[in-house]
Predict the 3D structure of the following.
Amino acid sequence: AGAAMAVAHLVEMGHRAVGHVTGPGGNVLTDTRRQGFDAAMRDAGLPLRPDWIFDGDFSMDSGAFAATRWLALADRPTAVFCASDEMAIGFMGALQHAGVDVPGEVSVIGFDNIDVAAHLTPALTTIRQPRHLIGARAAELLIAMIRDRKLTGPGEVIPVELIRRNSVAAR
């Protein structure tokens, strides 16, 4: 839902060319964020271009590497959804070092709302997940599973929130 929320925000801001920096392969967060991205792009009637999907690993370095691949494209997406704030930070930093205006030339949105996200220039638009609530609920569910001697427990989805900052501009 968070990835879909990110894409919907970019579309609402007028972007029709949207790229994605993924997390590491085989990771549940990577997979679910990619599924949300793909579904939101299809729902908006936007192309899912393989050359606009950049592999990452949730690190700043992989975000910076994705930026070098973005810079090498002749036809670039005007917005990029990064599956983590750290990758978004690396992506924006590498672009800014190359003289690219964020968000003037490309809008960037991250995921996690890590503490530094609000202190960047521009401040990073991101998807906030309530980490403390997630941890508390996971502990409560685990304790209930142990108490009830069950190997599985109920699934629960905790809502995320779009945090609008300055790294996304209208197109």
Notes: The beta strands are 18-21, 53-54, 79-82, 107-112, 125-128, 161-163. The two ends are 23 Å apart (CA to CA).
